[in-house]
Fold each of these.
Amino acid sequence: MIYYDNAATTSLLPEVRDAMIDTIDQYYGNPSSIHRPGREARVLIEEARKQIAHQFNITPAELFFMSSATEAIATVLNSCLRDLTIKNIITSKLEHPAVSRNLALLQKVHHFNIHYVAHDAYGHISMEDLEQQTMQHPEALVVLMHANNETGTLLPLKKVKNICTNAGALFLCDTVQTIGKFFINLDEGPDFATCSAHKLYGPKGVGFLYKRNNIDIKPLIEGGKQERTMRSGTENIYGITGMKTAIEIACKDNETVNKQISSLRTGLINGLTFIIPEARIIGSTQHTLGNIINMAFPLDIAGDMLQQRLDMNGVAVSGGSACSSGTNEKSDVAKALGVRDNEINIRFSLGRLNTAEELDRFLEIFAKTIAK
Ligand code: PLP
């Protein structure tokens, strides 16, 4: 199988698997217990917290382990509306469903206004519009993703941070697609950020929330007061160990991996446009994460059900976000960025395990798949 769906999820790196198995073999205590097995598990978690915090230039106290980035996002949205009584949320029409669908759900419970920031045809968020909107609603929560999961288009993090700081707004940045791809100094960045370990060769079902120290939000669910009361539920010690190892590896060699991916990206785009000259990139070509390439192809050339036909020929790609893959319905992002009715768009997302040899094979398969 040629796996070009690394933005949906990634496989476990062997080092991550080994670290998790060692933890499974050696640790069984409940980190909240005061006896030795419990204390050993506690030390493991706190060491992981320290190491991860160090990679992002934050303090361990600002990091909370959670089951997913979705949970981290829901925690912030719920608490900001419930505890900080935020009345205005400034976001975009290009956010992940973890943001957009949670906001829709919360509108049934809380009274608040959602303001959408303008974006251009490439998915660049308008800084001028953001500035105006934050000036109009200074006590808002701004929710914008760092890199779009369908197109890879990047947000200028520092500019957004400055705009929010100047206006006095809080800033939640969904950093799921960028964590581990390059160095992010969270201390100079958003007030809240998120990570999902399975996007960077770690295990599924574990992530973290970064929350700036001086902001007092409350948990989404109550219980045994784990994670300094921010996230009840016995800690997933195997997942946390796996995430720590995955982050360590990603942060160590991301420059090498990015170079390798950048050359594959060029080859992929050139190859696809050679086969279908009418193909066009959806999203930014200048401010982009690099590993995500979203291409729109004319339906009469590429044919319907392209994703499924590629799958049958041994290539895993996505038509949009993981949630909407498996259907041929255009995603909200594809619609917002102008993918036409007579086009079909496919997301190719590359990863550290993809090779140049595989790219040649992929292009042959692609040409055969569309010719059928
Ligand atoms: N945000 C973005 C940008 C994503 O790509 C994803 C995963 O698809 C999520 C949030 C949700 O992450 P998780 O799978 O940890 O809930």
Note: Confidence is low (pLDDT under 50) at residues 321-325.
Amino acid sequence: MAVLSFRTAGESHGPQMLALLEGLPAGLRLDQELINNELRRRQGGYGRSQRQQIERDEIQILSGWRQGVTMGSPLVLMVPNQDSRLEIAPPVTQPRPGHADFAGSIKWLTTDCRTTLERASARETAVRVAAGAVAKCLLRHFGISVVGYVEQIGSIRCTVESSRDLNQLRFERDDNEVYCPDARSAEAMIDQIRKAGAEGDTLGGVIEVRAQGVPPGLGSCVQWDERLDGRIMQAVGSIQAIKGVEIGGGFALAHQRGSQVHDVIEYDPQQRAATHLGFVRRTNNAGGLEGGMTNGQTLVVRAVMKPISTIRKGMKTVNLESLEESVSAYERSDVCAVPAVSVVAENVVAFEVARVFLAKFGGDTLGEVTQAYEWFMQQARNLGVKPDHS
Ligand code: EPS
């Protein structure tokens, strides 16, 4: 059995974006409507560019399934690009500060930033979302749900209490154009985006992802690259324009003492059936991860997105052909893509959870995975109650 993984291919203005995904067990029903819904949400959000009026992202699964069910073979996921014009797109010689344009042009020894920007583009996140949505088809089979939303845009920040019900959060998030679960903050965010756009500028923000129903013991403390916190930081930190990732209390923990930060452990036998096995943590500063392993509490991941680097009013740069002072290139741009990034982060976190889930419970068929999961949960529930858990 291959480890659950995916790689992507495709250019922003090429014919399509692609992902090759492998490591799923056979027998898993893939829900195209679920996948397409995530793709639609990623295209949306207040502040998106005219490009999203051209694109109509819909998944095509080219291999690895039959009659709607996985076969244990690699999946090829394809999202066509409607704005496909790679061969005729003009060169770009004025690198945008903050974009991959400059560093990539030096790296590939060219004065044409298009060599870099076509692949660096956040268009690639369409297929990352598709891969994550496929992973969600597995997770929901085991009662795991993942929700991402916007917490801050520009200077407008809303606080989402840790006790909020995830379904309620999702419902309120889906009720406005910035995917923020607080309606009043959402209005103020929209206002800020409108103002930034009118001034030819862009805005960043903060997104949060929560995953509930995740069993304890996923990931590992044994090797650095098996620690789930590290894997999540890599997966989320590699999303275009992300500049920081936090788990649980994150950077705010620096200001407090250990006794204030760590989540005390209690036990309530009435709650043994839940994924946290009756071990109650009244706070969740750890964000569901201790020692690189899930502890049965809700996973909490936060990330900051810098403001988009394609700016209508332009920024000072150098023309790579003439080496003269110039203004950064502009064709069109999102004013704010923080709502879209909340969808991307939700789906990449889902993928990482599915990866460690299958690392622990993996098998060739969904039946084997289910059996391994149920056996483990049963043993874990008996910890302390029934001494022999080997
Ligand atoms: C992007 C630049 C823009 C965005 C694109 C990401 O593309 P274009 O240059 O065609 O206007 O629209 O995002 C998407 C196409 C998308 O689907 O998210 C960039 O430079 O990263």
Note: The chain has one domain: 5-381.
